[in-house]
Design goal:
Organism: Alteromonas portus
CATH superfamily: Gcn5-related N-acetyltransferase (GNAT)
Protein name: GNAT family N-acetyltransferase
Strand content: 35-45%
InterPro entries: Acyl_CoA_acyltransferase, GNAT_dom, N-acetyltransferase
Number of domains: 1
Shape: globular
Oligomer: single chain
Number of strands: 6
Distance between the termini: 34 Å
Keywords: Acyltransferase, Transferase
Radius of gyration: 15 Å
Pfam families: Acetyltransf_3
Length: 154
């Protein structure tokens, strides 16, 4: 609960939320953050990302359902003032290792907006391979984007 105000601050930064799902409310309120800390963050395999003892981001792998239960989708965000410091690359390395050692997930994938070049580069540098491009698969804020799919296997 000590990170609630920090969550609100970070998740109201347009640079951070530009390529995030609209599942994350905008504007992001204190009530949203309290729900996330108490309930939302307990679903899937989710971890806070800290730097020098301060919350700077979040990363998680959400397992699929039914015949997709052995695949998990990774998602993440990072406070913009901490970009390009290797923090998320290390968080990805750790969440992949934790997921593969503590679950039966065989495949971790990420869906990335076509114009999110930083995230595409991050995933490639973290050992993911680009698997597909789904044309006009994302519609956000009145605009279509291709969805770039990246994967890593156990």
């Amino acid at each position: 609960m000590g990170d609630v105000d920090r969550l609100v601050d970070i998740l109201n930064q347009p640079s951070v939320t530009q390529f995030l799902s609209t599942k994350i409310p905008n504007p992001y309120t204190k009530e949203d953050a309290m729900w996330w800390v108490q309930e939302g963050s307990t679903q899937g395999f989710i971890r806070a990302v800290e730097y020098e003892g301060e919350l700077v981001g979040c990363i998680g792998v959400n397992p699929g359902n039914f015949e997709y239960e052995r695949s998990g989708e990774v998602g993440y965000w990072l406070c913009s003032s901490y970009w390009r410091k290797g923090i998320m690359r290390e968080a990805l390395r750790q969440i992949i290792a934790l997921t593969f050692s503590n679950t039966n997930i065989e495949r971790i994938f990420a869906c990335v907006f076509s114009s999110n070049f930083a995230s595409q580069k991050l995933l490639l540098n973290a050992g993911f391979k680009q698997e597909a491009i789904l044309q006009r698969a994302i519609f956000k804020d009145g605009q279509f984007y291709d969805s770039h799919i990246f994967t890593t296997l156990r």
